[in-house]
Structure formats: C-alpha cells, structure tokens
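Justification of computing resources. Each target in the renewal requires a structure prediction run like the one illustrated here; the chain below, 300 residues long, is used simply to show the kind of job we budget for.
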Amino acid sequence: MSHVSDFLAPGDLQRISNLQVLARQVVEGFTTGLHRSPHKGFSVEFKQHRQYVPGDEIRKIDWRVYGRSDRYYIREYEEETNLRSTLIVDRSGSMAYGKSEGGKVSKFDYATRLAACLSYLMLQQSDGVGLVTFDTKIRRYIPVRSRVSHLRVILDELEQSTPGEETGLGRVFHDLVPMLHRRGLLVIISDCFGEVAEFLKALAHFRHARHEIVVFQIWDRDELEFPFKGWTQFECLERAGVKHLLDPVMLRQAYMDNLDRFRQELTLGCRRHKVDLVPFCTDEPYANALAAYLSRRLAR
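Resulting structure tokens:
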C-alpha cells in the first residue's frame, strides 16, 4: 500500500503494530479481552427474536420469552465493529509553527502523522475510524468506516490539508456533536490554543453524548521554553500582517506565567471531565510517544 509507505516510516509502524487501541468504556458494543477476537462485537442494540433451532448456543436463549410463551427464542443483535473512533485534527494557523530547513517538523506535520498512525492501527484491527479537520469551522468530515481501503481516503485528506485560519475550538466542537450520531472514541489532535473555558464546555458536551475523549496536545519546544534572546520579530500565524518586534527577555517571565496558568486550567478541566490529556512535543519521535501512551492505556 504505497500511501502508507509514503506517509509513515516502516519503523514507525513496527513500533506500534503490536499494540491495541482499547477504549476504557464500552462504546457501541462490548469487546472481548484486548481485541483478541478477530470477530466483530455485538451492538448493545437489540435487533429481533427468532425461533431456536438445534445447534444454536443455549446461552443466547431469551428465558423471559420462554417463561411467557413456553417456547425457545434467540435474541439477535446488530453486528458492529468493536470500536468507532473519530480523529479530530486541528489545521488552524498556529499548527504551522515549527517548520524549518533543518528538518524540523511543524506541529501540523506531527499531528497528521499521529493521525495516520492511529488510522492505520485501528483499521488493521478491524475497528472503524473517521476524520474531521477544522480551523474556524469544520473543513472536512469523513464518516467512520472499517474497511481497510478507507485508509487511503483518510491519508489523502491528511496529505492535502494545510494549516489555515484562526482556531475555533468551542464553535467547531459544538457543530460537530450532532454529526456524531453514535457513541465512540474521539481523538482530538490540537495545540488547544484558544479560550480554555469554551474548550472545556465543548468537551462536556461530548461527554454528555457519552463519547470517550482523548486529547493529544501538540507542542513545539519553543512554546514550552521560550528560548528567544535578543530583539525578535514575532508574527501571528492566524492573522495576516500582525507582527511585533519585541525584546523576549522582558517578556519571558510573563509568558511563562501565562503558559503555566493555561496548562493548569486545561489539565484540571480535562481531569474533571474524565478526558485523557496527553502532551506531545515535536522533538520527540511521534511513534515512540504514541506507543508509550497506548502501552499505558492498555495497562489500566
């Protein structure tokens, strides 16, 4: 499959191929063990009764119906994939930070590779996966599918997407809720820049709809350490023409204080809503970071 090899290094897949994405909650069906069974699970939604015939499993008999009718009937359920996941990828302007001639990747490049790794992994284990890209609004919505051929659709969109306008996390997530008709795992891949209160309100909306949520927060090391020295021109990546020539030494303490407040508020809010908040930094190999997180998740 050339699209996979073009977008993901073979070593990346090797590091994560033996791991499973396991939802902590029952999402649209129940799983057996750590996805050991190659068969699809069964939806919690009842489909129909049919009369028992020799060879049917006795454990599937509906004994309540037997008590009323003195006849044996089997309960049937809709077959579904074990897990339905939607990857929600931020393509706002701030995600473009970090691109350089020295081989350094931007936050957006890093995010798309994480999304590609997860898509590949989920489809290989017969789970369903979809994709949403957004900035000020939803730019593309690809519904959940579990066919292996669906990977090409997702990778094509990731490759063609480019960082664009301002971030609109709260508004975008509010618009997205009614589009996700069934419960599932939502993986948000973003720097989460914006109003924290609006972001947390949107997460609460998702949780009310009984989705499980993981947030992969993407950082560049510059954003965490603010290493600038000497007069530097700072340019806004989300508003064209907004530039400021500043002395970073004078700003550093205020910046670090604001950063600490932002991270603490986001961390506490995610914890309150039972949302995994997982920081990733672009100078760390994304396959290693993803493998480490999935290992911790499976160990719970």
